Structure prediction request, 276 residues.
Amino acid sequence: MITIARKITEWLWFERIIISLIIVNAIVLGIETYPVIAIPFESLLLSINQLILLIFVLEAVLKITASAPVFSRYFGDGWNLFDFSVVVFSLIPQTGEYALIARTIRLLRILRLITAVPELRLIVSTLIKSLPGLGNVILLISIVFYIYAIAGFHLFHEHDPFHWGSLGVSLITLFRVLTLEDWTDVMYSAMELYPLAWIFFVSFVVIAAFIVINLFIAVVINNLHKAQHEMELVQDENLDAEILHTLTESKKSLERIERALSERQRQASESTSSQS
Prediction:
């Protein structure tokens, strides 16, 4: 049973089928947001949803079985734990007081696309590993925001209280400027009071939008290269382990064949001796 489960989970098309089902599940969830389509085909969509859930349950069972007797190979992997949790929570009935929770949890199945595609796993892992390094960058941009927000309040709050009426409102306005969404309207309004107010806005855009955000990108890219290198090392280690396992199994097979041949020779010698 364990051997069959391993062959199925290691089959090239196994992951491709799972990815296809995740995409189909996402399409079904999207269709359900259109009552004109969803209501006439409600029973069909429900059947598809139940079939996909059943396949996901079988997938989890196969992967757990394939990891036997060392189940830590499955449950010790965070991605596998995420998939297992999604499957377990998806078993909550979609009726009664838990209906809304169950429908919401169904959306998590789409996130399984991340666990199914190695490249997406690499990106998410990189973002998670980048969080400690991004702390200093976030602290820097927070200082820049705070300084500019207080300066903007003192400079413009009387002329434009809607955008600079308090520290909180000033921070929201600066965030709007950071996104580069209609920020020139705010700047032109300030220039009605101070013609040189453009220096305030342009300097903030250069510092916050260009320099600091590029620091974010630099940290993420640096960690991405490290994660790629680590993945290559893990793949090499897995390949070495697989080669070693194959050689060990081949050695055992040769020893069994050698013992069988020796046994046959012994039996042949005994048979010859008895005939003599």
Q: What stands out?
A: The chain has 13 helices and no strands.
